[in-house]
Design brief:
Elements lengths: L14 E5 L2 E5 L5 E6 L2 E7 L3 E7 L5 E7 L2 E7 L5 E7 L4 E8 L5 E8 L6 E8 L2 H4 L6 E8 L5 E4 L5 E4 L3 E5 L5 E6 L2 E9 L3 E9 L10 E6 L4 E6 L2
Antiparallel strand pairs: 1-2, 2-3, 3-4, 5-6, 6-7, 7-8, 9-10, 10-11, 11-12, 13-14, 14-15, 15-16, 17-18, 18-19, 19-20
């Protein structure tokens, strides 16, 4: 087969993120993100701070969490690499750990881990990207969901702009206004998680939690957007 295109770069530990025909190549702690579509290079974002996490939406929009000397910054870029908005988080003990942009490009969702109290708190916030749409809200934040005692390291917008989330203890789904649609508690650690298209979530279970009777280690669970386990497989 003939090579349609190629691109050369230097990275020590490259990480790839893909979504609906788009691909972002970057590295954790790096300062650039290269985004491609099926035709080749689409845009490159040069960052002023070190990258913590990156994600793409189905239209090639990029969200990025950055670590600065003063705290953290969350940014959203359009499909041409133009900066749409950024959120600066300088409060010690509160860490953004996952971000994603809705497929319609209107909303930026960010998952924060709050360690400022005795119990860890996770907070998922919904922000309008367009300043005109968010002008009536403080920092454009129009909704928030709190999860006491849980860490939510993975969020992703799904079909219909619903937002899926995987915590250390559960899988749950919210609508685009932050309303919780369902949550499935788990009695095992989660070893792996993947999103199958924009309508299914698959998780691979690890060891059972202490004093809990969970499932066999190595079990894979699939969840659809209506909740409940749609399929399972004990992989051993």
């Amino acid at each position: 087969n003939n090579i349609a295109w190629n691109d050369t770069y230097t990275m020590i530990s490259p990480v790839a993120v893909s979504e609906n025909g788009y691909l972002a190549v970057t590295e954790i702690g790096g300062k650039s993100v290269r985004v491609y579509d099926k035709k080749g290079p689409l845009y490159t974002v040069q960052l002023e701070n070190s990258l913590v996490q990156a994600s793409l939406n189905s239209g090639g929009y990029l969200s990025a969490i950055l670590k600065s000397k003063d705290g953290y910054i969350v940014q959203a870029y359009n499909a041409a690499g133009g900066l749409l908005t950024e959120r600066i988080d300088p409060v010690p003990g509160i860490y953004p750990i996952s971000a994603d942009i809705s497929d319609d490009g209107r909303t930026l969702a960010v998952s924060y881990m709050d360690t400022t109290d005795i119990e860890i708190m996770s907070r998922i916030v919904f922000l309008y990207i367009n300043q005109a749409e968010g002008k009536n809200y403080v920092d454009s934040m129009y909704a928030a969901v709190e999860k006491p005692g849980k860490v939510v390291p993975v969020i992703k917008f799904m079909k219909g702009n619903s937002l899926s989330a995987i915590s250390d203890k559960s899988v749950f789904l919210m609508d685009e206004n932050g309303g919780e649609l369902w949550e499935e508690e788990l009695l095992n650690e989660i070893d792996k998680a993947v999103f199958a298209g924009n309508d299914h979530i698959a998780v691979g279970l690890g060891d059972e939690f202490v004093n809990e009777e969970g499932m066999e280690k190595g079990t894979i669970l699939w969840f659809g957007l209506k909740g409940k386990t749609s399929a399972s497989f004990a992989a051993g």
